[in-house]
Amino acid sequence: GESRVVVQLGAYGSPALLQAGWAKLSRKHGQLKRFTPATARFQAPIGQVFRLSLTGFQSDTEARRTCMALK
User: What's the predicted TM-score (pTM) here?
Assistant: First the structure.
């Protein structure tokens, strides 16, 4: 089964900025294309924030490795 771990990639002020962020990250880190980008919108004190994260990891270890590779 898949791990339920989610790796957050960034938070953006609009859907367009989020799309641009994902395009840039997935170009720079080709391994990200194996996973599923997920978005969530939430209300923050500064206004609406659009969070970009990844799901679809086979294990917590794989998620941690991916996270470390991005840093």
Answer: 0.83
- Report residue 26 as tokens: 């997935």
Is 61 in contact with 67 (CB distance < 8 Å)? no
CB 52 within 8 A of CB 6: no
CA distances (Å), origin 31, targets 13, 15, 42, 43, 44: 25, 23, 27, 30, 31
pLDDT recorded at residue 37:
93
d(CA 66, CA 60): 10
Q: Are 27 and 65 in contact (CB under 8 A)?
A: no
